[in-house]
Structure formats: structure tokens, C-alpha cells
Design brief:
Elements: H1 8-27, E1 72-79, E2 84-92, H2 100-114, E3 120-127, E4 141-146, H3 150-157, E5 166-168, E6 189-190, H4 198-214, E7 217-218, E8 221-222, E9 232-240, H5 246-256, E10 261-264, H6 266-271, H7 273-281, E11 285-288, H8 301-319, E12 325-326, E13 332-333, H9 335-343, E14 347-349, H10 363-373, E15 379-383, H11 387-402, E16 406-408
Parallel strand pairs: 2-3, 6-13, 8-14, 9-10, 9-15, 9-16, 10-11, 12-14
Antiparallel strand pairs: 1-2, 3-4, 4-5, 7-8
Signal peptide: 1-25
GO molecular function, one term: hydrolase activity, acting on carbon-nitrogen (but not peptide) bonds
Domain NodB homology: 231-408
């Protein structure tokens, strides 16, 4: 009998994995840095990015009400080429808290009156004494008010009915509060414990390399679709939902027929639950991006479990569906992080194509990058609250169609 010979592609894969493993062993950091948000600094999610080494995000257009409302902090206005949306931020002193609904209703009416072209006004009402931006303490209440639903919102604000596109803060969340980290994604990073046996470290790195090279899911890791995928790529957005960008982003995806996976920050989902429900209702996939948007390698196993499980429970309640996918902030993980995700029934998802919208390189640079890197079987990383993402997304969706690449969810990829 002729002995069976291994296929050449498998030999090449093993050789490449070995070489990559050796390189990782030389260069892997001993530990992941903790980049805590600085006091008074804009937190992740308000106007991305805040990570070091990036260009400043362009200022968002603002609307000034005349005459002014003293409790209206800012009104941002943004469009996607089809519809225009405003987000009003209100800051109330303690004496105004009981009137929060009525004051929000007045502000929404005034914003609509000032801009007749608006399709929707979203409002976030904060306590003035503790307001710390989008990543600071949660709002007192939020609402999403499409122009066609203004009467329903006014009825709710007057206490005479229900309105499902609102959220009223019930008090502290059940998860331990943690400050959000400043994050700059470069490449996914595996950090192993230098005190662990060398065999365990090598096994973890080999699993990571195999997932990158072979494609498909390996040991709970997914970097790209299974090799041989010809016409599909996954479109993913981190840090969702954001009250100014989400309706614009969902509108563009609806018009293009593309579907995406949104990696959702739990605290954002808590404050803006109606946008998470919109994602699911429109056929998108909702994934876990931790509750507080924190780097996981420095945390204890119990803290990592808390971040994942609290977000999973919230997203299941909002969508009625199990959560299948998880992406660690910054792309940083350890073998313990991966195990915690597996224990929660989650596959850890990274990416192949990152045009760097988080770094605000400019529209021309972003367009050049995604045209160079988009390919079948890949996973595209974008951020739902990066202004330049919204600038180029319409062209990106058109370009993908021209190239014959259908953009789908992570769950839609062959694995």
C-alpha cells in the first residue's frame, strides 16, 4: 500500500504557522498596557477617537437655537446624503430633574422647528453636575424621535401614553463600574502570561496563527472566512450604538441592502436600547464588545466574566436572540480572555481589513485603503461613531458591489 502523503497546502500552512509562531514568541509583549481615560477627557464613543497617535476628529456641525434654551448643552446635526439627523444634549440641574420629560419635549420641538429638513431628532438628557460626555455617567433619559413620531413622543412626555423609543435611567447597573479605556486598534494582539509553561504559550500562539492563516473558526477564534470563500465579506462596526450616527448608518445599510455585525458596548446599549432593537429588526447581527469598553488582559477572570455576561444578558433581552460573537476592545486578548468567551458561548472575532477610520486619516486615505484591502472572505473593521466612516461608507458599499463582494454579517460567513 502506498503511504498517504500530506497535501502540499497543509505543509505550507504548517511551515508558515511555525515561522509566524517563532516571530510572535520573539515580539509578543509581556503584558498589555492599561490606558485609562484621563479625567475631564472626552470618553470613547462621544467623538471618536480619543486614542493616542491619532488625528483630531473633525468638529461636528452644530445648531444654535434662537432664542436659546439654557439647559441645551449642544445640538449636533449630521446627514448621510439622504437624511439629516440631530442629537440634542441637555444638562439639567437637580431642581429640573422632575421636569426632564417636558424639557426634552420642548427641546425636540425647537430643534425640529429650527431645521425643517430634519428626519429625526435624538435627545440625551444628563445631570449637569456629573455630565462627562458620551462615555461618562449615563443620561437621565434618552429618546429617538423621528419626525413622523413626534406626536407619540409628545404624548409620552405629557404622561399620557407609552412610547417605545425612550429610555429612563433606572439607577446603577448591575455590573461593576469601570472607566472606559482609550483604544487604538492596530493589529489583533495575543498576550500570553510569561509565567505560564512554554508549551501552553506556544499552543496559544499556534491556535492564533492557524486561525489567521487557515481561515474559519479555530478554538473559538475567527479572523476570516474559511479559505475558498469567493464572494462574501463580513462588515463589522465597533462601539455601537451612538445616538447621532446610528440612524444615519442604519439608513445607508438599508438603502444598499447590506447587512453587518455591530459589536455593541453594553453601557451604550443600555442607554439607547431602541437602536439595538432597530439593528436586529433590520436583519443585522448584534455582538458583544464588553459592557464598559475596557481592555481585558489586565482584568481578573471574574471581571472579564462580568463584562461579557452583563452585556450578553442585556443584548439577549433587547433582541430576543442569543449573542454569538465577541470582539475585545483594542483587539487585545489572552488565553484566559478566549476561555471566558468560550465559556459564555461566544466566538472571538477579529478582522482582516482595517482602513483606520478611528484614526481620522481623511476621506481620500480611507477610500484608498478600503479599495486596496477589501477581499472576499475578509472581515472589515469600521466604527459606527467615526465621522469619516460615514463620509466614505456610501462609496464603500457601492465599490463592494462593483467588485462582486457581498457584505454580510459575521454569522453569514462560511466557517
Amino acid at each position: 500500500m502506498t503511504p498517504t502523503r500530506p497535501a502540499r497546502p497543509l505543509i505550507a500552512l504548517a511551515l508558515l504557522a511555525t515561522l509566524t509562531l517563532a516571530a510572535q514568541a520573539r515580539t509578543a509583549p509581556a503584558h498589555a498596557p492599561v490606558l485609562a481615560a484621563l479625567p475631564g477627557q472626552i470618553q470613547p464613543g462621544q467623538i471618536q477617537p480619543v486614542a493616542p497617535g491619532t488625528r483630531a476628529a473633525p468638529d461636528l456641525p452644530t445648531l444654535t437655537l434662537t432664542p436659546t434654551l439654557p439647559y441645551v448643552h449642544t445640538v449636533n446635526v449630521l446627514g448621510n446624503g439622504f437624511v439629516t439627523v440631530a442629537h440634542a444634549i441637555l444638562t439639567l440641574n437637580a431642581a429640573q430633574h422632575p421636569q426632564a420629560r417636558a424639557l426634552a419635549e420642548t427641546a425636540v420641538q425647537r430643534v425640529f422647528a429650527a431645521r425643517p429638513d430634519l428626519t429625526e431628532v435624538d435627545v440625551s438628557v444628563y445631570d449637569a453636575g456629573t455630565y462627562g460626555g458620551f462615555g461618562g455617567p449615563l443620561p437621565l433619559l434618552t429618546a429617538s424621535v423621528p419626525r413622523a413620531r413626534l406626536n407619540d413622543f409628545q404624548t409620552w412626555a405629557a404622561g399620557r401614553g407609552a412610547y417605545e423609543r425612550t429610555w429612563v435611567n433606572p439607577g446603577p447597573a448591575g455590573t461593576t463600574a469601570r472607566p472606559a479605556d482609550r483604544v487604538r486598534e492596530t493589529t489583533p494582539t495575543l498576550t500570553t502570561d510569561p509565567a505560564a509553561p512554554l508549551t501552553a504559550q506556544n499552543r496559544a500562539r499556534l491556535r492564533d496563527t492557524t486561525a489567521q492563516v487557515a481561515g474559519g473558526e479555530h478554538g473559538g477564534l475567527l479572523y476570516r472566512a474559511r479559505r475558498g470563500t469567493t464572494d462574501l465579506a463580513a462588515l463589522t462596526f465597533d462601539d455601537a450604538p451612538h445616538p447621532l450616527f446610528e440612524p444615519l448608518l442604519l439608513d445607508l445599510l438599508r438603502r444598499s441592502g447590506a447587512h453587518a455585525t455591530f459589536f455593541v458596548i453594553g453601557r451604550n446599549a443600555q442607554a439607547y436600547p431602541y437602536f439595538v432593537r432597530d439593528m436586529a429588526a433590520q436583519g443585522h447581527e448584534v455582538g458583544n464588545h464588553t459592557y464598559h469598553h475596557v481592555r481585558l488582559p489586565p482584568l481578573s477572570p471574574a471581571a472579564v466574566q462580568d463584562e461579557l455576561q452583563s452585556t450578553d444578558a442585556l443584548l439577549r433581552d433587547l433582541t430576543g436572540r442569543p449573542v454569538r460573537y465577541f470582539r475585545p476592545p483594542g483587539g487585545e486578548y489572552t488565553p484566559a480572555t478566549l476561555q471566558a468567551a468560550r465559556d459564555a458561548g461566544l466566538t472571538t472575532v477579529f478582522w482582516t481589513d482595517d482602513p483606520g477610520d478611528f484614526q481620522n486619516p481623511g476621506d481620500t486615505v480611507l477610500e484608498r485603503r478600503y479599495r486596496a484591502h477589501l477581499h472576499a472572505g475578509g472581515i472589515v473593521l469600521l466604527h459606527d461613531n467615526a465621522p469619516q466612516m460615514l463620509d466614505v461608507l456610501r462609496d464603500f458599499l457601492r465599490y463592494a458591489r462593483q467588485e462582486g463582494v457581498a457584505l454580510t454579517t459575521v454569522g453569514g460567513l462560511p466557517k
